[in-house]
Amino acid sequence: MADHYDVLGVSRDASPEEIKKAYRRLARELHPDVNPGADAQERFKLVTHAYDVLSDPDQRQRYDLGGDGGAFGGGGFGGFGDIFETFFGGGGGGRAGRPRDRRERGQDALVRVTLQLGDVVFGTHRDIEVDTAVLCETCQGSCCQPGTQPVTCDVCHGSGQVQRTVRSLLGNVVTAAPCTACQGYGTTIPYPCATCQGQGRVRARRTVSIDIPAGVETGLRLQLPGSGEVGPGGGPKGDLYLEVTVESHEVFSRDGDDLLATLEVSMPDAVLGTTTTIDALDGTVDLEVRPGVQSGDVLTIKERGVTPLRGTRRGDLRVGVQVVTPTRLDAKERALIEEFAARTKAPGPQLAQFHQGLFAKLRDRFRAG
After folding, report:
1. Angle 209-211-214 from CA coordinates, rounded to 5°
2. What's the pLDDT score for residue 355?
3. What is the rounded average pLDDT of the residues 207-218?
4. CA 129, CA 240: separation in Å to the nearest integer?
5. What kind of fold does domain 4-76 have according to CATH?
6. Span(s) in the chain for CATH 1.10.287.110
7. CATH 2.60.260.20, the chain: domain bounds
8. For the structural domain made of 253-366, what CATH number should be given?
9. Which terminus has fewer CB within 10 Å in the chain: N or C?
């Protein structure tokens, strides 16, 4: 087989633009309408095949690495239509394309929904109102008045295209373009449906029932295939995308599948310890505060967080302790505190040794706050 670069007369490092210029020059010289000789016809096939290979980056790479560069059919000029369409704006060889289908896929729709933090613990159900295109009940997507149907276009005779002959440097070239009488459908609708004006669909508000899974978070998009709008001509529905926003909570924040909260503990309770009941997002929880608890300590309640989006084991509820120091003391209270200080003989304030764990607890407690 002849080398493709030699056939086009270019070097092996020729740019795509140089390859295109070489092909156009040879095509004008060797096209059968210009040069009807048998030798020219055979060379034209070789030139076209060489261009097919070298103009495609993947095929050219395989060819340069020793591949055969694609099979060469050589059976007439039916395979050159795409090339003529590229250079001359029409289909080569007088080939007519297929008519357009009136039924087209509908567009996707996007709906935004706002959830409370409690909704994402176990998931929730919502009925969403969507203003979109639905199937026309009068014509059921046929676009025609009931009892009528489309008729074959009398201009293109159902092909959806019309052909015309254009004189060019290569002689007469037959091109094809969509039929303007039927817009390329091959049929016309003499009696369009009055309800949808021949569109096969109408605008309407409908309700979509959605089960929102647990574990969703702000920015997540849920896809509901086939729940979008109906396409033109009663075509298949597009998809519906649900974009989630989770509102901030005044008490709880989220860290992955864990819930975070802050528990204010009075100084006496911090010293002596206590038990308390807190209201979690899914009911009450008994919590024990041990004697001597410090600000920054984290109390963990297992599996009282968020159910993960993929999985079943819930996260934890992590409660950071904040010891509240009294700011207003009467004389008796102040005397008791002074007596306590004298008895304990605690050292004065001083810098403590750096402890990464303390900062990690504080970071966890306020990360999503």
Report:
1. 160
2. 53
3. 93
4. 12
5. Helix Hairpins (1.10.287)
6. 4-76
7. 109-145+192-246, 253-366
8. 2.60.260.20
9. N
* Full-model pTM: 0.61
Beta strands 317-324 and 124-135 are unpaired
Residue 261's Cα: distance from chain center in Å? 34
CA distance 260 to 277: 16
Q: How far apart are CA 154 and CA 145, in angstroms?
A: 20
Joined together, the tokens standing for residue 247 give: 């509102």
Tokens of 205: 């508000």
**Domain 109-145+192-246, CATH among 3.40.30.10, 3.40.50.11270, 1.10.10.60, 2.60.260.20:** 2.60.260.20
Model confidence pLDDT, tens digit, residues 82-135:
444 444 444 333 334 688 899 999 999 999 999 999 999 999 999 999 999 999
H/E element, 258: strand 258-266
Which residue blocks in the chain are alpha helix, DSSP H? 4-8, 16-30, 38-54, 57-64, 81-88, 119-122, 267-272, 331-344, 356-366
CA distance 147 to 332: 97
pLDDT at position 38: 74
Cβ burial of 35 (10 Å; 0-12, 13-18, 19+) is middle
What would the DSSP string read from start to end of 25-58? HHHHHH-TTT---HHHHHHHHHHHHHHHHHTSHH
